[in-house]
From TrEMBL, chain A:
Organism: Methyloraptor flagellatus
Disordered: annotated span: 218-240
Matches recorded under NCBIfam families: LptC_YrbK
Pfam family, one: LptC
Biased composition (Low complexity): 218-230
Name assigned to this protein: LPS export ABC transporter periplasmic protein LptC
GO MF entry, a single one: lipopolysaccharide transmembrane transporter activity
Residue spans crossing the bilayer: 42-61
Keyword Transmembrane helix attributed: yes
Keywords, ordered alphabetically: Membrane, Transmembrane, Transmembrane helix
One GO CC term on file: plasma membrane
Length: 240, 159
């Protein structure tokens, strides 16, 4: 099948609206229609994912929990409130250090601990770290579930900040879910989503409930492999 | 081995430095196989170009950031769009059932009921092949075969 190279003729019969007449008759000599066609060339849209992966920060959140066990929390004998409880240790080669302004056991179920002003820090094997803060949280020893449900924010060493209204964390599986809006901001841009589900130790992240991302071009470091292009920002172009 | 999903790969763009806006109903990243999928009303905009599709699957590569501590260099290798794929830029619109973009070879292809409209002229075919470097397209397989030639390389727009 040979392809006939026909240049578009600007005087070409305009396309008929209905499909039957969609045929373009370009038999007469076409003047050089030189319209520059750059349709796809410019459009390389899908950097979207760049941000999604920004969720690396989430890795911090999910690594925050597996392995932490609270049973060791001691409660002062005269009351059920423990002031400034501290919990640190290593879990799956992650060092964690979690403090709370207050932790108190619920009377009806001693296995449930309510925490206030939680402040946690996780150190990953590769020295990246994440700081987690939440105004309020609830840990259930039987189900090994921790809910952080107020003023939750995570800041990571690679410059990302996650904010969310809620995080349900399963200490056993390490799965972290939230059905409330979450935003992630960082060098690569910003993600807003209606909910998130982090599994597989952070290797799988699913944003749901509508996702919006704004990806910022990041100058490629010199010596960047040619491969797929990263954005190159020319020197003149500073942040607009 | 990076600890999970590493930093965002820097995304891709034809060496342009414009931000990219993406919208979709859902978005899933599978770091272990380095893929990410946007599903549902996917819209991607970069400057005056937009891509729409029902689903877009992205294949990326590159080391994790966590391992190196510095933002990892990750790049999109390829992505595939499926379902009512519409690519628009200015007065040019290409539609088809499926499409893929390959960053390494800098080529793209749209297949299935392909319609390439530019201003008032329309071409239909089964396959639209695009060289992302030169902007040259080849629409084949339909009743009308059209080669839209770029006349002069676009002058780089000074910001």
């Amino acid at each position: 099948m040979t392809d006939i190279d026909m240049d578009l003729d600007s005087r070409m019969v305009p396309a008929q609206p209905d499909a039957a007449r969609g045929q373009v008759r370009a038999r007469h000599a076409a003047s050089r229609h030189s319209r520059r066609v750059r349709l796809l060339k410019i459009l390389l849209p899908i950097a979207g994912v760049a941000i999604a992966l920004m969720v690396a920060a989430i890795v911090a959140l999910k690594s925050f929990l597996p392995g932490i066990n609270m049973p060791g929390v001691l409660f002062s004998k005269d009351g059920l409130t423990m002031v400034e409880p501290r919990l640190s240790g290593r879990a799956k080669n992650r060092a964690y250090d979690v403090t709370a302004a207050r932790a108190y056991q619920s009377l009806d179920n001693p296995k449930v601990v309510t925490l206030e002003k939680i402040d946690g820090r996780i150190e990953m094997p590769d020295q990246t770290w994440a700081k987690i803060e939440a105004k309020h949280g609830r840990y259930d020893g039987t189900t090994q579930k921790l809910v952080l449900d107020e003023g939750l924010s995570v800041v990571t060493s690679n410059g990302y900040r996650i904010e969310g209204a809620l995080a349900n964390v399963d200490l056993d599986s390490g799965r972290m879910t939230s059905d409330r809006p979450v935003t992630i901001d960082g060098p690569a841009g910003r993600i807003e989503a209606g909910g998130v589900d982090v599994t597989d130790e952070g290797h799988a992240i699913r944003f749901t409930g509508g996702v919006r991302m704004n990806l910022l071009p990041v100058p490629a470091k010199p010596g960047e492999p040619a491969g797929g292009p990263a954005f190159r920002s020319n020197s003149a172009e500073a942040g607009r | 081995q990076g600890t999970g999903v590493s930093d965002a790969f820097r995304g891709f763009g034809a060496n342009s430095n414009d931000p990219i806006q993406v919208e979709a109903d859902a978005f899933e990243v599978q770091d272990r196989d380095q893929t990410a999928v946007l599903t549902g009303n996917v819209q991607v905009r970069q400057k005056d170009s937009t891509l729409k599709a029902v689903k877009v699957k992205i294949f990326y590569e590159g080391k994790g950031v966590a391992a190196a501590g510095s933002p990892g260099a990750q790049q999109i290798r390829r992505f595939e769009a499926d379902g009512k794929v519409v690519i628009n830029q200015g007065d040019q619109t290409a539609t088809g059932d499926h499409g893929w973009f390959d960053m390494r070879s800098q080529t793209a292809q749209l297949t299935g009921n392909v319609v390439l409209a530019q201003g008032k002229s329309v071409g239909r075919g089964e396959k639209l092949d695009v060289d992302l470097r030169t902007g040259v397209y080849r629409l084949t397989g339909g009743r009308v075969q059209m080669l839209l030639e770029p006349s002069a390389p676009a002058k780089p727009k000074t910001p």
